[in-house]
Amino acid sequence: MARVVQRTLRKNTWDSRIESHLLDGLTEFDSRGYLIGRANWERNLRNPARPEVATLIEQHIEAILNAACEHIDTNRANNTTPRRFLPYFLDLAVNIIVTMGKDFTPEARRIHGPEHPNTLAAMYNLALSLKAQGASAEARVMQEAVLDAHQRILGPEHPDTLIAMSQLASTLREQGALDVARPLQEAVLDAHRRIFGPEHPSTLVSMNNLAITLQKHGALAEAQTLQVDVLDVRYRTLGREHPDTLIAMLNLAVTLYEAGSPEALPLIQTSANGLLKMFGTEHPWTHSALSWWKIIRPVRE
Length: 301
What we know:
Layout: H1 13-19, H2 31-44, H3 51-59, H4 61-77, H5 86-100, H6 106-112, H7 117-132, H8 136-153, H9 159-174, H10 178-196, H11 201-217, H12 220-238, H13 243-258, H14 264-279, H15 284-300
Helix pairs in contact: 2-3, 4-5, 5-7, 7-8, 8-9, 9-10, 10-11, 11-12, 12-13, 13-14, 13-15, 14-15
């Protein structure tokens, strides 16, 4: 965990640059202590210990601090408030150094720059962590930066670009920005259909993602069409008891319920029973299906 100490942050260039950002609860944050603690943690892991990672962290603390500062400066320019997420930005820099290994020298970092694939991969992972912590605004800014870089460097239909686009759309949907999320997901689906074909797993996932957004947007007929197609493919390729088939049933049942269709009840019942049998009562999928079953059953019976 991060350690709070009473000290003045003016010992080096990085500390003086970062000081203006640390205004609410992290003014006394000991960045070096945090990194040394991270190194010790890596060295003492039991399954498995990673002494080589610990050594890299200890050898390149100054470079990690500078890399973290660069990301904070970038996000500050984008009107975010990353200072309370300083440990995440330090971990981002650690992820970059671990990926680059011994090549993470100041010269190599300048060559790689903020748009190197390793940097973008670390930013992508950090955005997921921020989102999981409820910091969706900060995650969105980072995901937009990753998508922009991928589109310029790799092109609009590279797999990494499509993954970044899908993740950004998911964040936008959670924020309620459905009008912005929908065209992104439509673009991903169109690309997957052309590149992989209509029944590829990636195509089916993108169909489901778009259907959920359409459902939340009130476009129930369009959502239902996509979900029926997904379920049909799942039936034919995986069978009726596969988890992916049962989840497809659940998704379609919710849309049918929202549309007032009596066909929702048998679908949700089959889905809930199958997931309960396969995973038990504590699994999140089972819990979701049973919760919807309790909602739908009183209405239909």
